[in-house]
Design a protein that fits this description.
CATH superfamily of the largest domain: Response regulator
Order of helices and strands: EHEHEHEHEHEEEHEHHEE
Bound molecules: calcium ion
Number of domains: 2
Number of strands: 11
Strand order of the largest sheet: 2-1-3-4-5
CATH class of the largest domain: Alpha Beta
Structural class: alpha/beta
Radius of gyration: 20 Å
């Protein structure tokens, strides 16, 4: 489980982020001030920091500078103004990424995942080296990045492969379309929920071609999203 340090003084924003990150299996430490956040990180190092720029006691940029004195922790900034971006990502501070308010929690989670991936510390999902259980005849070979149904390799596109892999990692767990977008697309902002539906449709037809009835392995949970069947 990756540990996220969130320093944000607006409770409404912090609450949605704590919730969104929590559902994605991140452990979040939230503080309202820079000083509290720095103390929390010193006491128990985190894997990534999400820093609001405008904090009551210091700026997020100051917090980043102090964090970087003693660690190379990746930093994602929350900023209210585009004008701050140059400084954030500049060499001086070396922020890893930023999002501009107002943002969707999904966007922040996607950025956190992307940063963790670059840092070589991916928590579950979309990681082709992960141990994937064999479920209902579906198996995964990480070295060839192939998914097989009853031993027959499925001819999947890159996105179809990643999407099915996410479902296979946690059979029975329901993933929302947003979560699938975050996991299987590098830039989820460029696609829509319908994109997920179209890819699921295509995966199902390829499953059906491999084994009639296998298309039902991807279950539609109406109003929620998709999950992988735990039994055929
Ligand atoms: Ca603020």
């Amino acid at each position: 489980m990756s540990k996220v340090l969130l320093i944000e003084d607006e409770p409404a924003i912090a609450d949605t982020l704590v919730y969104a990150l929590g559902t994605e299996c991140f452990t979040v430490t939230h503080t309202l001030t820079g000083a509290e956040g720095l103390a929390a990180h010193a006491a128990d190092p985190h894997d990534i920091a999400i820093l609001d720029i405008g904090l009551p006691d210091m700026t997020g940029l100051d917090v980043c500078r102090k964090l970087r004195e003693s660690s190379s922790i990746p930093v994602l900034f929350l900023t209210a103004r585009d004008g701050e971006v140059d400084r954030i990502l500049g060499l001086e501070l070396g922020g890893d990424d930023y999002v501009t308010k107002p943002f969707s929690p999904r966007e922040v989670v996607a950025r956190v995942r992307a940063i963790m991936r670059r840092a070589g510390n991916t928590p579950a999902s979309g990681n082709h080296d992960a141990e994937i259980p064999v479920t209902c005849g579906l198996s995964h070979d990480g070295s060839t990045m192939r998914i097989r149904c009853d031993g027959k390799p499925l001819d999947l596109t890159a996105h179809e492969y990643k999407l099915l892999l996410v479902l296979m990692e946690r059979p029975g767990r329901v993933f929302t379309r947003d979560q699938l977008l975050d996991h299987a697309w590098q830039d989820p902002g460029a696609v829509t929920d319908r994109t997920v539906d179209a890819h699921v449709k295509s995966i199902r037809s390829k499953l059906r071609a491999a084994r009639p009835g296998a298309e039902n392995l991807i279950e539609t949970r109406r109003g929620l999203g998709y999950s992988l069947a735990t039994e055929a």
